[in-house]
Amino acid sequence: MGREVHPGYRLPLYFTENESCIEETQTYGRWSFVLIEKGSGILSCGGLQTPFTSPVIVCINEQEYVKIVVSSDISMKSVYFDPLVVNSKFNFENVHDPHPDFSDTEGQDLYLLQPFIKRSLEYPRIFTIDTANAQHISKLLWQMNQTLLAQSDFNWPCRSRSLLLEVLILLSKLIDQEKSLTEEDADKWDRVNDILVYLHTHYSNKISLNELSRMFHVNRTTLNHQFSQLTNLSVIDYLIKYRVQIAATLLRDTLLPISEIMERVGFHNTTHFWRMFKKHTELSPSSYRKQNCWMYASGQ
Fold first, then answer.
1. What is d(CA 40, CA 74) in angstroms, rounded to the nearest whole number?
2. Helix axis angle, 186-202 relative to 131-150, nearest 10°?
3. Using the 8-state DSSP alphabet, how is residue 25 labeled?
4. Across the chain, which distance is largest between two alpha carbons, in Å?
5. How far apart are CA 105 and CA 298, in angstroms?
6. What's the DSSP call for residue 36?
């Protein structure tokens, strides 16, 4: 709830941590994103019991009742939210519609909500993740909560939402990687996965191929060759594409200053940012926002 800045404004986004249980989403009509950072146990949902060992992510929609029936030394962070946090046109009914009546601008980020909507081998309720990604997600959630509590300036609603969006983008990337992996790639994947994890968790920092080569004890040529075999991109091209993906999402779904978004995603030179963004989207950041931002279109 907004206080001095945007008094009375309601943002359906709520954070808790170190709970020993998952609150019922159906009671409150909301979704839950749960990061279990420590411990193990058994989750129960719809009569199905699933064992887990941290770190894992649990995605729960408003129609599901999920309970931890057995637990050992659990530590977790939970975010409860409404689909409209991503886009004001989204609600619990239309996001479940297989053919929603969204314009291109309105529906462009529906893919971020698939872990809460779909249930399949590709979209299980529980996602096992590595420690580095868990720590990065934990940091983003902590920053989100601090922003919600501080409400320090006009942009606090967009900034807190943007941190959740970064988490959802990373989760979608991890799911896509899992889907694209074949058994034949397993050996190569072990060598490349650590690099991908590093890129996904340090994209806001300056990263060079020489630095990665030293860090992972492999020469530049071998590193790039193995990486491109699995991703069809060089390491730096992948990094730039990921940075632009996050920047484009924040331009579409927030009104944060372009300069803040640029720094957030690891571009520290305005000319370079504009050039790379236009290369991947065919538009400048400002033109892209004017054309695609639903907040402009809805007057919010």
1. 7
2. 20
3. H
4. 57
5. 11
6. E
**Tens-digit pLDDT profile for residues 25-43:** 666 789 999 999 999 999 9
50 conformational bin, left if phi > 0, alpha if psi -120 to 50, beta if neither: beta
The span from the CA of 168 to the CA of 58, in Å, is: 12
- Counting Cβ atoms within 10 Å, is residue 256 exposed (0-12), middle (13-18) or buried (19+)? middle
Q: How far apart are CA 147 and CA 158, in angstroms?
A: 10
Sign of CA pseudo-dihedral 203, 207, 208, 214: negative
AA identity, residue 205: N
Backbone angles phi, psi at 62, to 5 degrees: -70, -10
Distance CA 94, CA 100 (A): 6
Of 36, 35, 14, give the one whose Cα is nearest residue 25.
14
Q: What single-letter DSSP state applies at residue 251?
A: H
User: Residue 24: its pLDDT value, please?
Assistant: 63
pLDDT of 183 over the 60 cut: no
With tokens 């001095």, the residue in question is 4
The mean of the pLDDT values for the chain is 91
Q: Is 50 helix (H, G, I), strand (E, B) or coil?
A: strand
The per-residue pLDDT for 20 is 64
Cβ pair 265, 249 in contact under 8 A? no
Q: Among all chains, which residue has been given the structure tokens 């009914």?
A: 93
What is this structure's pTM?
0.93
> Could you give the CA distance from residue 16 to residue 61 in angstroms, rounded to a whole number?
17
Contact partners, residue 132, CB within 8 Å, separation at least 6:
197, 198, 201
Stretch 157-186: mean pLDDT: 85
List, as one string, the DSSP characters of 120-175. SSSS-SEEE--HHHHHHHHHHHHHHHHHHHH--STTHHHHHHHHHHHHHHHHHHHH
* φ and ψ at residue 56, rounded to 5 degrees: -140, 160
Is the pLDDT at 282 greater than 60, yes or no? yes
